[in-house]
Amino acid sequence: MGNEWFRRFGHPTGPARSESRAPRLFCFPHAGGAASTFLQLARALTPDFDVLAAQYPGRQDRRREQPLTDIVRLAEALADHVPDGDERPFAFFGHSMGAVLAYEVTRVLQERRMPGPAALVLSGRRAPTPRTSPHDRLSTDADILRAVRQLGGTTPQLLDDPELRDMVMPALRADYRAIGSYTWQPGPPLSIPLTVLVGDRDPVASVAEARAWENLTTAPARTYVFDGGHFFLDANLPRVAETVNDALGHLTAVPATR
C-alpha cells in the first residue's frame, strides 16, 4: 500500500513467510504522535505481520499540511485509505488517541458496509463514554505541554527547545482539540475480538476504565495490564509484541500468487 496516510516500516520477509503474504496490522498513533512511533513495534512483529502506521496530516513529512481537528473527520479520512482491494486479513492497533481512531475507523467501515478489521488492539485509553474526560479538555499551550510532560511520551529536551517545540505544537494543538471535542455516539456493539492493553500507573486511563472497552463488542475480549504509565509500550516491547502475536494469531497469511 502506498499513499500519504500510511507508512510501511518493512516488508514481511524470511523463511516463515517466503511462500505467503502476511496479514496487515494498521497502527494509529497517540495525540501529537507520528507514524515513526511504531517503528520498534513494527520491527518486533515482522515477519509475522505487515505493519503500516498512520501518518496524520501536520507532522513529519506531512508537516506542511493542515492538521484535522475532528476525530470523526480524521476517522473518515483514514477509512478512505484502509480498504485497497487487498484480500489479506487485517487488524487495527491504536494507542491513546489512536485507540479511539482505531475504534471509530472500524465503525466508519461498518457503516459503509466495507471490509473491516478482524480484531482490534486498543492501548492506553479508557473506553469511550458520553462524557468527555477532563484529561482531554486542554485549551492552552501551557496546559497541553504540562499534560505531555506528565505523560512522558515526548523527550523533555524537545519541549525545552523553542524551535523544536514550535514544530510540534501545531500537531499537538490539533490533536488535543480533536480528542477534547470528541463525543462518543452509542451504537451497535462491534462483533470482533478486542484486546485491551493498559499500564498499571497510567494517570489518564485506569485499569477499570480501560477494561470497559470489553463491553463494546459481542466477541471475546481481554485486558492485559503492564507495568508502567501511559507510555508503557516502550518499556515492555517484547511482551507487547508477544501479546499482539497471541491476540492476532487467528489471522492467516494469504498464499502468494505466482
Automatic annotation (TrEMBL):
Q: Give GO MF terms, alphabetically.
A: hydrolase activity
**Mind telling me which InterPro entries this protein's record contains?**
AB_hydrolase_fold (IPR029058), TEII (IPR012223), TesA-like (IPR020802), Thioesterase (IPR001031)
Q: Which UniProt keywords apply?
A: Hydrolase
Q: Which intervals hold domain Thioesterase TesA-like?
A: 26-248
Instruction: Return one Gene Ontology term, BP aspect.
Output: lipid biosynthetic process
Entry-linked Pfam families: Thioesterase (PF00975)
Q: Where is this region: Disordered?
A: 1-20
Query: Which protein are we looking at?
Result: Thioesterase
Annotated organism of origin: Streptomyces cyaneochromogenes
